[in-house]
Design goal:
Largest sheet of chain A: 6 strands, antiparallel
Oligomer: heterodimer
Shape of chain A: globular
Distance between the termini of chain B: 34 Å
Largest sheet of chain B: 5 strands, antiparallel
Number of domains of chain A: 1
Radius of gyration of chain B: 17 Å
Order of helices and strands of chain B: EEEEHEEHHHEEEEEEH
Strand content of chain B: 25-35%
Largest interface: A-B, 45 and 48 residues
Strand order of the largest sheet of chain A: 1-10-3-8-6-5
Number of strands of chain A: 10
Strand content of chain A: 25-35%
Order of helices and strands of chain A: EEEEHEEHHEEEE
Structural class of chain A: alpha+beta
Radius of gyration of chain A: 16 Å
Distance between the termini of chain A: 36 Å
Helix content of chain A: 10-25%
Number of helices of chain B: 5
Number of strands of chain B: 12
Chain lengths: 215, 222
């Protein structure tokens, strides 16, 4: 287990301009303006918040996991991480993090990948990619599956071993842990509050998250 | 750079003719470009952060693009992404066409865009790629390190296509390769007929997930 560093925020929830609880298994599509600050709170602990960002002025520019981890030289996201776009521009910067480590290698669960990972009869279980697709379709913006690349899993712990193994380890999150990031450009934030019941990423009990935005 | 639609059940052999090769690659369902390589779905299904024999490159729709049926190296990189013009210039200096003619420095991003455009595709279709012949290790703190001297001349990896694919290749330096002289390792591509994966196939039996993605893909051809 690596060293985890925790950074608290000075922002107060009562000063937030936007506040919403996203129930387990639901989604959220929201514009975050440049300079605004987004906080995601793991209300009950060990809940994966699958999160993706598009550039609001041109959605072909979008979050890129490979560019983000390579440019910072580390696979884990935490305070100081610059979330990079596929054009290698800074989209958001993580300013505070009381969880200490977040994953961006594991991607989102999907009906189809659940069939591969667990069994062919899992096709009709609720999954993050379906939430992403529905939120994009309902957003009123021209954003489709073609624009969707792989995401961040806030509050999820996916260590890589020196031999190249990928593990899905117990969560490092707890009730009330949060991550906070400042938008460096106008972005659309797309969240699926993960409904996965086939593995311990949500401790087999998906729970709500809270999103807050400060101007 | 090179791209080609390759039918199902071909053996695509990639051979590094020189040491230090890196081949950035993207794969798509030839009939549906939205059914495309998904690195996280591939890695989490296989519980791996590297690619080698037995592994199957999967799409985000649970389908199998290609199985790795041969591998002399034991490690190909799915984490590092691909190099852009800005990165090439900062690592190797500016070598433009005007001065160097066809010895100018190519970069994988532009090569992907050129080849994808030939198939009516573009930036939105560039997802996380894999890098054949390169190795990036991750330590306990999560730090990534490029392994130099990983690929000797003669290194070889064999891919069996499990559906009709569009294969897009960019022979350009790995973005984490050390700076210095721009690498120019040649890679040979050979395509042979291949038998379908039988019930005793190594890749099919590598993990239960492999059997299931092959079964799903076979449904495309009913």
């Amino acid at each position: 287990m690596s060293t985890l560093v925790y950074t608290e925020s000075i922002l107060q929830p009562q000063d937030a301009s936007f506040k919403l609880t996203v129930p387990a298994g639901d989604g959220w599509f929201h514009r975050i303006g440049k300079g605004q600050i987004l906080r995601i709170v793991d209300l009950e602990g060990n809940q994966a918040a699958d999160t993706f960002f598009f550039c609001a002025t041109d959605v072909t520019e979008r979050y890129s996991a490979q560019d983000t981890i390579r440019e910072q030289g580390s696979i884990y996201l935490t305070t100081g991480t610059k979330l990079m776009s596929n054009l290698c521009r800074e989209m958001l910067t993580i300013m505070a993090d009381t969880c200490g480590r977040h994953d961006t290698l594991g991607g989102a669960c999907a009906a189809e990948s659940n069939m591969v990972r667990y069994s062919l009869d899992k096709r009709f279980m609720h999954a993050c990619r379906d939430t992403f697709l529905l939120q994009m379709a309902l957003s009123g913006h021209r954003v489709t599956k073609r624009d969707l690349a792989h995401n961040i899993n806030f509050f999820m712990n996916v260590p890589v071993t020196s031999e190249g193994g990928l593990q899905f380890a117990d969560g490092v999150s707890e009730p009330g842990k949060y991550v906070e990031m400042r938008a460096e450009m106008d972005v659309f934030c797309l969240i699926s509050n993960c409904p996965q019941l086939n593995n311990p990423c949500n401790a087999y009990n998906p729970t709500p998250i809270e999103v807050l935005v400060w101007d | 750079m090179w791209s080609m639609r390759i039918p199902r059940r071909r053996l695509v052999c990639l051979t590094a003719l020189d040491a230090g090769a890196n081949l950035s690659a993207l794969l798509y369902n030839s009939h549906d470009p939205l059914d495309r390589l998904n690195v996280p779905d591939t890695l989490k299904a296989l519980h791996t952060a590297k690619l080698t024999r037995g592994h199957i490159l999967m799409t985000d729709m649970g389908n199998s693009l290609a199985s790795i049926v041969e591998d002399s190296l034991g490690w190909h990189d799915p984490l590092g992404g691909h190099i852009t013009s800005t990165m090439v210039a900062s690592k190797y200096g500016r070598h433009n066409y005007q001065q160097f003619r066809n010895d100018f420095h190519r970069n994988a991003r532009d090569n992907f865009l050129i080849e994808l455009s030939k198939h009516g595709m573009g930036l939105a279709d560039i997802v996380a790629n894999v890098n054949f012949f390169s190795k990036v290790v991750v330590d306990a703190e999560g730090r990534m390190a490029f392994a130099p001297h990983h690929c000797p001349a003669g290194a070889r990896v064999g891919l069996r296509t499990e559906m009709d694919i569009l294969l897009v290749l960019a022979n350009c330096p790995h973005p984490l390769a050390p700076s210095g002289e721009y690498p120019r390792a040649r890679v040979e591509v050979e395509i042979f007929p291949s038998d379908p994966p039988g019930n005793d196939d190594f890749c099919r039996n590598f993990r239960p997930e492999c059997g299931r993605t092959l079964a799903l893909t076979e449904r495309l051809f009913l």
